[in-house]
Amino acid sequence: MIMEKISLGLCLIFFLENIYAQRVIPDDLGGPRFIAWNNDYQYLSGFDNKQNTWSENLNYIGLGSNPENYLTIGGEGRWMYEYLNHASANLNPNDRNESVAQRLRFFEDLHFNKNFRLFLELGDNWAFDAEVPTPANYDAFDIQKLFFDYRFNLTDDINFSFRPGRFVMPLGSKIIVSTRDGSNVQYNYDGLRAWLNYKDHVKVDLFDDKTDQNLELKGIYVNSKLDNQRLSQPQLDVYYFDMHHDQRMLTNTFVEQNRKSIGARLFGRHKSFNYDLEYIQQFGKYGDQDIDAYAVFSNFGYTFKQNY
Predict the structure, then answer these.
(1) What pTM, to 2 d.p., does this model score?
(2) Cα gap 155→153, rounded to integer Å
(3) 195's torsion region: left (phi>0), alpha (psi -120 to 50) or beta?
(4) What is the rounded end-to-end Cα distance, in angstroms, of the chain?
(5) Which of 125, 171, 222, 308 could be joined to 177 by an S-S link, Cβ 3.0–4.6 Å?
(6) What digits encode the pLDDT tens for the residues 92-147?
(7) Category of 158 on φ-ψ map: left (φ > 0), alpha (ψ -120 to 50) or beta
(8) What is the CA angle 103-105-107, rounded to 5?
């Protein structure tokens, strides 16, 4: 029996900047972005970049005379109707699941001197009228994210940062390590993430998640910006993931899996074309069975020029 699924959603992001205002925003900064800690509103410390809107007073709350010391507060509300028929592939009777999922978020993001940051996000997640509430859709009032970042310079060209706490960790194309935004509760990691930057050309990520007794993920992710005369903005990712997971099946039994993944990704842009190529090789154990799998992904696009 094939599972049928229907989803309709509404998402509102509160306390975000007026995206229609004309202002100068540095590359890779600003917002809004759906992952709140990816936003950086320090550019609002400059008088020329401010439009004096109410949202700017929440995006950038200056703390003292140093423009690098500031607080950002914001939130999110999302409501999604979901209908599932044969949710357990008829393994259980009456396996229809119909609900209205509600995601509410409130966060604060505190910055000091670019070297220290404290991020806290509180959330409330409900699946109203669900026949089978699942951990991915139901998590009453809880700390969704809580971490601090600390960065220090090893040399003039190399800096090192580490992040202990609870956080989402989308990596690369997000094929393997993502945020699980299709469900009501994002997939959080409780552990340590550390990264090394060399001249903004090479970034090395190390991570280890150990607090979940049924799941452990550790690995390394390397991103490098390449110098190439024929291709503009090429980047190369190489990575290794090691996952141990006691997976609960629909029959309420547990299967132990040890899955290791090695992959490489080449992506970038050349003139009006963008490209993304990725290869993943997996091996390990799923119960008493061997894992031997691979995948190849490609994504190409073209941007048309527009005259205004």
Answers:
(1) 0.80
(2) 6
(3) beta
(4) 52
(5) 171
(6) 666 666 778 888 999 999 999 889 999 999 999 888 877 766 777 788 888 999 99
(7) beta
(8) 165
